[in-house]
Sequence to fold (218 residues):
Amino acid sequence: MTPFEVVAFNVLLVCSLLCLGRIGKGPTAPDRTVAIDILGTLVVGFCCILALWTGQDYYMNIAIAWALISFVGTLALAKYLEGRPYDA
Amino acid sequence: MLETVFYWCVGVGLAFDLFGCIGLVRLPDIYNRAQAATKCVTLGTCLILVGTAGLGFTRLGTPMGIKALICAAFVLLTSPVGAHAICRGAYISGVPLWEGSVEDAFADRAETIRKQQEPQREGPVQSEKA
Fold:
């Protein structure tokens, strides 16, 4: 543990709190969806910082899987916003 | 020396992430927010991943570096696609632009798309409040 990782972790925490504020406040549904998408990308950054912090490489597996799941979820939410059925 | 460069990569990426999230909170409508947040956070996270990859190759072990590079390519490909899909869905479901906007190039095409999919629409997804 070095000061660099602690500062990086806290910066990412502030970013996540801003995203959570937008999810809670955002006047329309697409606002919340964009904020959820950004939060998913920030979690990948969290995984990187944790990998640097601990020196374990399995955190990068979590990052790859999280990016994939977040992308699929975002596309599903976008289709729902557009008002189309999921299989068309 | 090389490690310092990679730590700078991670630091600059964190700064981009922070500015993107400030844009997500401060800008006036969904389209501005989406473009500010998506561009900044995509670049920021990719820089963090590249820095992690470099530190992995130099100090922490090659598997971490390779996984971080794969993840960087994946984020770079998928994040803009997701944001574009959300903005398209938002426009077609009728979220209005900010009143200060000067150009609306998508209006005609959005009308065509709405007419095409009118029969198969599954319930309204309207904005709660403009």
In short: Chain B touches chain A through 62 residues (CB under 8 Å). Helices of chain B lie at 2-26, 30-60, 62-92, 107-116.
